[in-house]
Automatic annotation (TrEMBL):
Compositionally biased spans, kind Low complexity: 1-20
Pfam families attached to this UniProt entry: Sigma70_r2, Sigma70_r4_2
Residue ranges of every copy of the RNA polymerase sigma-70 region domain listed in the record: 41-105
InterPro entries found in the cross-reference section: RNA_pol_sigma-70-like, RNA_pol_sigma-70_dom, RNA_pol_sigma-E_actinobac, RNA_pol_sigma70_r2, RNA_pol_sigma70_r4_t2, RNA_pol_sigma_r2, RNA_pol_sigma_r3/r4-like, WH-like_DNA-bd_sf
GO annotation terms (biological process): DNA-templated transcription initiation
MF terms in GO: DNA binding; sigma factor activity
Domain RNA polymerase sigma factor 70 region 4 type: residue ranges: 129-178
Annotated family: Belongs to the sigma-70 factor family. ECF subfamily.
Name by which UniProt lists this protein: RNA polymerase sigma-70 factor (Sigma-E family)
Region annotation (Disordered) ranges: 1-24
Length: 192
């Protein structure tokens, strides 16, 4: 290796590939790896985002925001993380919770729209289970979605959210109690 480029692999120098090309090649490989990761993981991340946010539009925004941040750091994340999908799920849950905390008090508009938007009805909008799930606090919703929608174990959920297994259990218990309470009336009335 040369003194001015300690990060360049010796094989690149030995092969006669100029240093600049070796770095560009590594960067292209990293971009290709990230593109492949996104291609494979995107459908599951969109489903997870939809379950977290309660609608497909916010889900798409959440996924895009998190993937932009992850893409910028992909080479480090792919080297240091065993399961990049779990890393992205954790980032999504954290970003959603942060956004929820910022916006739960008020929603500000710079200007009112001239023409009212025609809202497209989400097919799950009036579904009692989705309504009850949307009403849960973000961390409880994340635990329920990861457990029952994504099929992760308590340990995997704890790793994904960066909390203890005890926290996962307590959040799941609180969430299920709340869902039973909210859905109990609908179940008795025959709506579900």
């Amino acid at each position: 290796m040369t003194a001015h480029s300690p990060a360049v692999p010796a094989a690149a120098e030995a092969s006669g590939v100029p240093v600049g090309r070796a770095r560009r090649g590594d960067m292209a490989a990293t971009e290709d790896d990230f593109a492949e990761f996104v291609r494979v993981a995107l459908p599951g991340l969109m489903r997870y985002g939809h379950a977290l946010t309660g609608n497909p539009h916010d889900a798409a925004d959440l996924v895009q925001t998190v993937l932009e941040k992850v893409g910028a750091r992909w080479s480090k994340i792919s080297r240091t993380t065993e399961d990049p999908t779990a890393y992205v799920r954790k980032a999504m849950a954290n970003a959603h919770i942060s956004r929820w905390r910022r916006t739960r008090r008020e929603t500000l508009l710079a200007e009112f729209p001239d023409v009212p938007a025609i809202p497209q009805q989400d097919r799950l909008e009036n579904e009692p289970v989705w309504q009850a799930l949307r009403d849960l606090p973000p961390r409880q919703r994340a635990v329920v979605v990861l457990r029952y929608y994504e099929g992760l174990s308590e340990l995997e959920i704890a790793d994904t959210l960066g909390v203890s297994c005890g926290t996962v259990k307590s959040q799941a218990s609180k969430a299920l109690t709340s869902l039973r309470k909210r859905l109990g009336d609908a179940l008795e009335g025959g709506d579900v």
